[in-house]
Amino acid sequence: SYELTQPPSVSVSPGQTASITCSGDKLGNKYAFWYQQKPGQSPVLVIYQDNKRPSGIPERFSGSNSGNTATLTISGTQAMDEADYYCQAWDSSTGVFGGGTQLTVL
Amino acid sequence: QVQLVESGGGLVKPGGSLRLSCTASGFTFSDYYMSWIRQAPGKGLEWVSYISGSSTYTSYADSVKGRFTISRDNAKNSLYLQMNSLRAEDTAVYYCARQLAGGDSSSFDYWGQGTLVTVSS
Known about the structure:
The complex is a heterodimer.
Chain A lengths: L8 E4 L5 E6 L9 E5 L6 E4 L13 E6 L2 E6 L8 E9 L2 E4 L3 E5 L1
Parallel strand pairs in A: 1-9
Antiparallel strand pairs in A: 2-6, 3-4, 3-7, 5-6, 7-8, 7-9
Chain B lengths: L2 E5 L2 E3 L5 E8 L8 E6 L5 E7 L6 E3 L7 E6 L4 E6 L8 E8 L8 E4 L3 E5 L2
Parallel strand pairs in B: 2-11
Antiparallel strand pairs in B: 1-3, 3-8, 4-5, 4-9, 5-6, 7-8, 9-10, 9-11
């Protein structure tokens, strides 16, 4: 079965750029999606179809996808961005999530 | 505004059954694929199943295939998940989510608040 691999944790200083990677076989041939989940809350879509931002998502969130790796980039990271982030893709009509990355802003 | 409200969770014994419901409002329910996604306590997200707007297409994760059945009633703006032969590893918060489109380009653009299913003797 298809797998997506994320680093368990990423740390970033306020105002700096955070990059969270998601690796999967030929992931660049699929669309990648990213979700943010804060403690006790439901996930929120922050990037769809590799690099598109839903309405209401700040411009500091961006995405890319090429080769075997998709990347979520948060520019000028703020304390409010501290959360778990999950990548997601589809493989043979089944949804696949990465294991999640805990982003710490310190 | 789009709202998804899950219900039906609870405590059930291993081998038992449970039916989850998700009531949708704020959009034309029949126009959208819908999915169930679960999250075990302290763990990551796991996609469970989807159903197309007209119920023509369904898909299941291997972990639930043959035990869970997804369905919908568009007249009632409701999504369901019938869960049979439940196991301890099915313990999770179950979210219903709207899919922005069908196929490999679709994301989950709205999520409910989740309902907790606990499988334990």
